[in-house]
From TrEMBL:
Protein name as catalogued: Thioredoxin domain-containing protein
Pfam families: Thioredoxin
Family matches, as CDD domains: TRX_family
InterPro entries hit by this protein: Thioredoxin-like_sf, Thioredoxin_domain, TRL33
Domain named Thioredoxin: residues: 5-127
Length: 127
């Protein structure tokens, strides 16, 4: 991989909606991902992590909606984690996309696959 290659959301090469609330981030390395998880667990801010991959067609289809939804749910923290950029800390992810939902520092729900309406409903439920 190129040393200065773009990672995270920028590395997808997709045209994604602009986040207006500063509540959308990317985990671009194992260390970064583990720090984000620590922050989620210690802050008690509701959060959703989207585990995807640049080669995953379904991930590419849901990612623009994920970014757009971050504007609709400003109190939630949205994180995109590419499993190839965080290979050690995402070994437990068996399917992409996988969404993990956190509330009060605990993982409370999981969703596999795409589905903008399903994702919206889960976000609404956990916000």
């Amino acid at each position: 991989m190129e040393h200065n290659a773009k990672k995270g959301l920028e590395g997808t090469g997709l045209e994604l909606p602009v986040n207006r609330h500063g509540n959308l981030t990317s985990a671009s390395s194992d260390q970064n991902h583990l720090q984000i998880l620590h922050d989620i667990k210690s802050s008690n801010i509701p959060a959703v992590i989207n585990y995807g991959a640049s080669w995953c067609r379904v991930c590419s289809q849901i990612l623009p909606a994920f970014c757009q939804l971050s504007n609709n749910f400003p109190k939630l923290s949205f994180v995109y984690a590419d499993i190839d950029e965080c290979p050690e800390s995402t070994q437990h992810i068996r399917y992409t996309p996988t969404f993990h939902f956190y509330r009060d520092g605990e993982r409370v729900d999981e969703m596999f696959g795409a589905g903008e309406e399903r994702l919206h409903d889960r976000l609404w439920l956990h916000s």
